[in-house]
Amino acid sequence: MVTTSSSAAVSHVGRIRSNNQDSAYSGAHLFLVADGMGGHAGGDVASAIVAQRVAEADQSYANPHDAEFALQSALIAANSLLAETVFEHSELTGMGTTASGMIRVGGQMVIAHIGDSRIYRLRDGELEQITADHTFVQRLVDSGRITPEEAAVHPRRSVLMRVLGDVDAAPEIDTKILDTRPGDRWLLCSDGLSSYVAEEKIASILQTVTGTQAAADRLVKESLDHGAPDNVTVVIEDIGDVEDTAAGPLFVGSAAAPLSFENETARRPIRLPTLLLHPLKATQPEDAHFEPEREGYLEELLEEDRRRAIRRRVTWIVAVVVAIAAIVAAVVIGYQWTQSRYYVGVDHGRVAVYRGVQQNVGPIKLSSVYQPTTIEVSDLSSFERQNVERTIAANDLRDALAIVDRLQNAAGAKQ
Ligand code: CA
Question: In angstroms, rounded to a whole number, what is the distance separating the alpha carbons of residues 302 and 298?
Answer without folding.
Answer: 6
